[in-house]
Structure formats: C-alpha cells, structure tokens
Amino acid sequence: MPFNWTFGRKLAVGFSVAAATLVVVAVFGYQNAHRLVENDRWVDHTHQVRVEIANTVAYLTNAETAQRGYLLTGSDRFSSRFRPPSSTWTKPTTF
After folding, report:
1. Would you tell me how many other CB atoms lie within 10 Å of the CB of residue 62?
2. By 3-state DSSP, what share of the chain in percent is helix, strand and coil, each rounded to 5?
3. Strands, E, within 3-87: which ranges?
4. Which end of the chain offers a freer environment for a tag, N or C, measured as fewer CB atoms within 10 Å?
C-alpha cells in the first residue's frame, strides 16, 4: 500500500516521523537536564553537610583537648579555652 502513496503523502509522513523523533529527543533531554540540576543540588548539600560535620568535629576535639588539659593540670587557663566566646561557635545550619 505505501507504494500507492503520492509524493506529498510520503513527504508528510517523513516530516511527521522526524517531528515525532524530535519531540521524543527533546522530552528525554529535558528530563536528563532536570535530573542533572537536581543531582547538582544534592552534591552541594552534601558538601555543606560535610563542612558542618568537620567544623563540629574540630570544635569537639578542641573542647576535649582543653578539658583534658584542665583535668591534668587543674589550671584555669585550659578551662577558658574550653568555653570559647559565643562568636566562635556558630549555630549549625538546618538542612
């Protein structure tokens, strides 16, 4: 039956197939771009969380060191390091 089609009909079918293919490729491209942006957001969030964890571990390590120094020596100079000014400690970011 396709052999009985006119040139115009064959041309229309060809353009329709090309247009449908273009739409399918565009939909998949949009979905992949959306996933890429979402993954980038998660990577950024992960980096922020890791920085906050590293800062917290560093603070706790300094606190443990100061506490250990105070317990070993009984000197108040270590206890002042154990209680840093509130400007040093920042409230953890809520994610």
Report:
1. 14
2. 80, 0, 20
3. none
4. N
